[in-house]
Design a protein that fits this description.
mainly alpha, Tetracycline Repressor, domain 2
Length: about 300
């Protein structure tokens, strides 16, 4: 597998499980849906699991909770994959000019646009099968997310805040999870959703600092360009707002004091990110970005603790 030093300049790993285990014809498609880099799936999945656990105690009906967790887990893999295909189709010309992305399946010619479209249709079809396991209201909420999935890849062409659109997209599970459990929406999941939006604004701005020089040359926009050297200061705002909204959502959902103890631990992770991030260091930006899977896990533990007490 590639070393950290070489990984700074490409997001295509070599010598990993896809190279070792997957049939060669499948390898470009697995990389197209980013199965070699699961961090995006975790960031999409955790708001779903938070919401499911906050809407009703998983300990009351553990088998149902596990079933929902599993369905959302598979759905997150599929929809994150579908989103990556849409993104790479839209960005295939741009990706061919950026050092980190030039080796992706579409700009490198391993997969044609027509093949990518067929693969996208397959992912969406299987995703629909998963979605139809839920109630009618949840199906409607889930289907509505496709609007954002198809808008996001083009946002960077028109606004310096494509991360804002990504936040609306990646945290949709906070709404869908609640809808799947209760058949309705209320203020608690909305606050959870917007707390997740601030979370995404933080971590994806850090992520975007990896490409800031190439993005300026190519002519695409990002919050990293807009905020520049002020990004670390803004992380305190983004993450502070996220923790505040998560806390209020927990109160409205009737979680116990143990939720706030767990949330305090999660907040410490945010403090570490904001206090130590080096936006001039590609590897540190990637490390801080990936570390958000630990925040997601801490937040889930906090919600589960809040249902116990």
């Amino acid at each position: 597998m590639t070393t950290d030093a070489t990984q700074r300049h490409t997001d295509i790993p070599t010598g990993d499980w896809i190279d070792r285990l997957a049939p060669k014809p499948m390898q470009p498609y697995l990389r197209l849906m980013r199965l070699d880099r699961p961090i995006g799936t975790w960031l999409l999945l955790f708001p779903c699991w938070w919401s499911i656990s906050m809407a009703a105690s998983p300990f009351d009906e553990p088998l149902k909770a596990l079933w929902f967790f599993a369905l959302f887990g598979v759905g997150a893999v599929l929809m994150r994959g579908a989103g990556c295909v849409v993104n790479d189709l839209a960005d295939r010309d741009i990706d061919g000019k950026v050092e980190r992305t030039i080796g992706r399946p579409l700009p490198s010619g391993q997969v044609s646009p027509a093949q990518a479209l067929a693969f996208l249709a397959f992912l969406l079809a299987v995703g629909l099968v998963i979605l139809l396991q839920f109630n009618t209201f949840a199906v409607t909420v889930g289907a509505a997310s496709l609007i954002l999935v198809f808008i996001y890849p083009f946002a960077k062409r028109f606004t310096y805040w494509p991360q804002a659109v990504l936040g609306l997209t990646f945290n949709w599970g906070a709404l869908l999870g609640w809808a799947a459990v209760t058949g309705e929406l209320s203020l608690a999941p909305l606050l959870l959703y917007f707390g997740g939006w601030f979370w995404t604004m933080g971590y994806d701005t850090v992520y975007a600092h990896q490409d800031i020089e190439d993005d300026i040359i190519v002519g695409v926009k990002s919050s990293a360009i807009a905020l520049g050297d002020a990004t670390p200061k803004w992380l305190w705002v983004f993450y502070g707002a996220a923790i505040t909204l998560f806390g209020i959502a927990g109160t409205l959902a009737g979680l116990s004091v143990w939720f706030y103890i767990g949330l305090a631990a999660a907040a410490c992770h945010f403090i570490w990110q904001a206090a130590t991030v080096d936006i001039k260091n590609q590897q540190d930006c990637l490390t801080k970005f990936k570390s958000n899977r630990y925040f997601g896990a801490l937040m889930l533990i906090a919600v589960l603790l809040g249902q116990v007490g």
